[in-house]
Amino acid sequence: MPSQKVQMDNAVSRKNSRTPSRTVLFVTSTPGYGGTEKHLLELLSRLADSDVRVIILCADVDPYTERLNGNSRLDVSIRHERSLKSVWDWYRVFREIRPDVVVFVYGWIWCIPTVASVGARMAGIRRRFSIQHLIPPPIKPLDGTNRFRNFLRKFVGRRARQRMRAAVPPRLFNRTICVSNAVRNALIRDYRFPSRRTVTVHNGVSVSEYVRSESDRTAIRTKLGIRPDEFVLVSSARLSEEKGIDILLLAMNELLRRNLPIKCINVGDGHLREKLSEQVRTLGLTNHVFMEGFQKDVRPYLSAGDAFVLTSYREGLPFAVLEAMACGLPCVVTNVGGNSEAVGQNLNGLIVNAGSVEEVVEAVSYLLGHPQEREQMSRVARSRVCKEFDIDARMSEIRQLILN
Questions:
Q1: pTM of the model
Q2: 339 contact partners, CB below 8 Å, separation of at least 6
Q3: Considering only CA atoms, which of 310, 307, 264 is closest in space to residue 287?
Q4: pLDDT digit string (tens) for 91-134?
């Protein structure tokens, strides 16, 4: 049976003067653009001067072409296909492309089907890797009161199927790269990833590009009508359930009830935009919370802030926190994922429990009322991100892993 021809929707050819000696294929499945996709683009920019040809296989939407256009340094082709269902579909595509290296990019643990890694193995691709960005949901513990039910759940039920689906691919990979220790530990503990093949390479940020700007601070505050003496929180997050923006809005409502001179800027978009905008109106926060939507450049907004806040329920190691730290903002973050690997309690920010409006209120109140401590946290934030989360060093580690 002849295989279905796959259309090369978008070929972004940036030809180098020399012929590439290797082909690296990145497999992605994403509904839009976020931290995972940004991470991949940062990695691609570090491959520009190497003798490799890069192909991105998009199994869902393609958020890359528009962001690659105009970058003449990169030799990248985008292959877009949504019809990959069976192991034979994946096998066929891998045999057509014949990459030397394949890297599966997981925005979350289920986004790429198990048969994709099996297809890569069947196609004879010897170097197979994955990058895991988000801490997976915990496996529900067994009920100790019913042995028969426990047996079914452990070996044949949904719980067993979930674990099996997640456990097969990492055994077919040379390495699984995790963006935080929290992600790595959860995958090993809950989903039985082999510890010797599962490594951590932290996310990073360009410390030369993310620098506080006083002119941007003045411009954004003037644009939004924020006085110089008002305390400004900045939140850069996608408007989706796991980011917990509703908790931030409830905290803002309580802070204003205490008559504190505070404003909040949210930078981000998502399917909850209308619902959260309605919450802003219902709580009477229209003149105090600014929903600025997606911004290609968040640096002016970070410069306008006095502190950064992220009230999420699930994370890997968010770029948003590292970018805020690079701009010298003390951070209020929830104790999820790799947040505590970037933010030290009372060092460069404050850590609160996810879902707690009261703890967010108290943390923000503390920062507002203690300017000297806040200034010290600002210096530590910048220093820490420069020492531990420089993106060139982190991307060099990944490049060496997949190309060595």
A1: 0.87
A2: 310, 312, 315, 317, 318, 321, 333, 351
A3: 264
A4: 999 999 999 999 999 999 989 999 999 999 999 999 999 999 99
